[in-house]
Amino acid sequence: MLFIGAAAAALQPALQTNGYDGVYACNVYQARNMLIARCIKGNETLPEVIYCDMDMGEQLIAHFAAYLAVTKEFVYIPFILVASSEKHNALHFTARQNVDDIIDVQTDAAILLDKIALLKKYKNLKSRLPYQLTPPQKLIKPWAHVFSRTIDILFAATMLTILSPVLLMIALCIMIESRGPVLYASLRAGKGYKVFKFYKFRTMVPDADKKIEQIKHLNQYDVKKDAAGPMFLKINNDPRVTRLGKLLRNSSLDELPQLINVLLGDMSLVGNRPLPLYEACSLTIDQAAQRFLAPAGITGLWQIKKRGQPNMSVQERIDLDVNYANRHSFLYDMRILINTPKVLMQKADV
């Protein structure tokens, strides 16, 4: 691994404990020279990941990230910025263009390892995707990203304010019904395999995640028996769901805390569903990996077309996600958003 700057170097001890060696560069100029020297010598391996201190400055970061993105020897290397908590979201939009992720300097080593594994897979798969899969006219321009992000923030902030009494009432009911946290937070993989904490109202008994192996045979998706494991997991009449949880799921009220994820920039209003890490890791073929080129969203093409369909196959689910990844645009997202309300209240006991 290559660590650029003091903040990035602070991650080195934790990663070394897990078997990762690293080299240090004082600034991006020295880092670039080190990378070039390794290419010229040919007998030294390139770093698996590059961590860069966010204090290096936006312009230098943007130029260095752009250099990595256009150099074929380095395009496969994940480029991650390291920031303190108060600076985590301070980077200007233009400097994020070729940055794979931004992490806190205090990030747990286990989470770092998950991010490394997923980002390496994403960078390698993305580089092999045929360019014709996403026509040039479908590519979203930077101004469209800014416009879409502005709408996400305004909508999420407005809805959280308006629905605050409902949110408080739901939280109180959850606390009364069963012990455990009000919110369920799990690590999910979104656009570009970016790992983040995904929030929902808790609808299951405590420690439900630990019981997945016990109920895997109830998976409604059509997964071949000889497969290493299901890529998607959805249980009809899941025994782990509480009585209140069943009501929240049928009305989709359990999804409301994801507005927090939208405010944080982890998700958009419309996109592909962020996947649990065990599902994201199973999508290893190029075609399936295309779903991660699209943003993660609260609602999306799969929700409005196939929500609750018990006989949907894994391939149908993947095809819908890939379809959205290749077609998504502001107008397409608006169409999906407009069609979402009529399916939110449908009774789907899943």
TrEMBL record:
It holds the Pfam family Bac_transf. The chain crosses the membrane at residues 153-176. Residues 149-345 form the Bacterial sugar transferase domain. It comes from the Bacteria. Keywords: Membrane, Transferase, Transmembrane, Transmembrane helix. One of its GO terms (molecular function) is phosphotransferase activity, for other substituted phosphate groups. Belongs to the bacterial sugar transferase family. This is Sugar transferase.
